[in-house]
Amino acid sequence: MKNKEFTRSYSLSTILILPFILIITLSSTLIAFISFEKNKQVTVQSVERELTSSLNTMEQKITILKSTVPKEEFDQNLAYALKMNENSFYNNGLHLLQFKVNQQGKIESFANYKSTLLKLSPEVIKQIQHKKQVSFIRMGSRSLFPIIAN
């Protein structure tokens, strides 16, 4: 009885077209979602590559600066290099946090360069100190943060 009422209230063309519209809408939504997820992964990988490249360059600059200039000049040149690094990421719409972990496990800014400091767990700080190099970490679903261990 209900089936006859349903067919009487809608025309035959509506009954035939409705499933096709539903299938097209669902498939388009699924394709859009898959495309979004894939592009998100590609973007994250691109940022990771850019960060890795930037960190390798920064590590080379620090090594060269430490071996060639006195401490005061080193601090000035390092602050300039950090600012240039921050600006290159900022121009790409990314906020870069750069700081160091001292031998006591305290997070601090570089001399002549101020940056936002994060609270990191003792386990992460130990991991950074163990590496003794320029590296980056992922904080959950947040951005990647370059870290330079002293």
SSE-based structural type: alpha+beta
Distance between termini?
80 Å
Q: What level of helicity do the residues show?
A: 55-70%
Question: What profile does the largest beta sheet have?
Answer: 4 strands, mixed
Overall radius of gyration:
27 Å
What is the arithmetic mean of pLDDT? 78
Fraction in beta strands: 5-15%
Number of helices: 4
Tell me, briefly, the overall form: elongated
In short:
The protein is an alpha+beta fold.
List keywords for this structure.
150 residues; alpha+beta; four-stranded mixed β-sheet; 63% helix
Topology (elements, then pairings):
Elements: H1 2-9, H2 12-68, H3 71-90, E1 99-101, E2 107-108, H4 122-131, E3 134-138, E4 144-149
Helix pairs in contact: 2-3
Protein described:
The chain contains 4 helices and 4 strands, in the order αααββαββ. It is an alpha+beta fold and 150 residues long. Helix 2 runs antiparallel to helix 3 (71-90). It is elongated.
